[in-house]
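fold-stage: in
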Amino acid sequence: MKDDDFEHTRSVERQRPPKLVEPPARDRADAVPDTSQISLPASSLPAPSLPASSIPASGPPAPAPITKAAEPRRPYRLKMSDGVVVSLDLTIYLGRRPSVPRVASDRRVRLVAVPSIGKEVSATHLELRQSGDAVVATDMRSTNGSTVTVPGSKPRTLLRGESAVVTPGTLIDLGDGNVLEVLSPERVTEPSP
């Protein structure tokens, strides 16, 4: 580097940032006058003028229909081989000694242990979760896989992390006599008057 290049860089002054033309957003709100307290007599307001073609011949418009609030989604259920019914309101992990995987699809989970004398069922064998209006079964990289039989279809074995969407009536065989059945959401009966 030459000496004259060095001198040139030393003599450069820092420029100041440009001044703001308008105040920041939070200050502008203070500058707007409050019109909520102003009241005008109805006679001082100008009458709206609409072209005759825009006025409906049948009179005022009908009121908007009242829509019923959306009913909260009820969870599907899972019937275990011993007859116990478990709600799918949380993600379920099934296995001999289930645990939450490091990368879980949900933070709130339910761990369900199933018996496995022959150790055909892996420690954490299957994940079942409700996703919208569907139930998704995912094999958790189990040793023997999970056999899924959707009504009207041939049995299919999920292996090493495979997933399948299952419907009510689906049977899932984990091994060692552990056959699960996916049940539809429980019906809510309305009280009679």
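fold-stage: in (second)
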Amino acid sequence: MTREQQSIGESPAPPSFDKTVQDDLSGEIAAHVERQPGDAVKCRRIDGDSYRCNWWAAQSTGGYDNPGMYGLLVTTHRVRKSQFLRVTKSPIRGLVIQVVGDRQK
């Protein structure tokens, strides 16, 4: 910070980061991964190139007292699969996805 910036109360510019570090690929990953019919995939960036993806699927309503009740209810959807992924984006290969952890429900 220069003395001139200090005197008028300006803060120094934030350090610039490499664009690849700042890119959040969550949306692209969710659109790219395989899914079963009816799945909703939610993907979140954890840190850097680490992501967690959850595959949400409707559960049977046969055990409910009102199985004729339809619609997207929170209580009828469960995470059927969860994975930790390491994802990078290559200009030649596109998304490069490596499964780090796999948890089947």
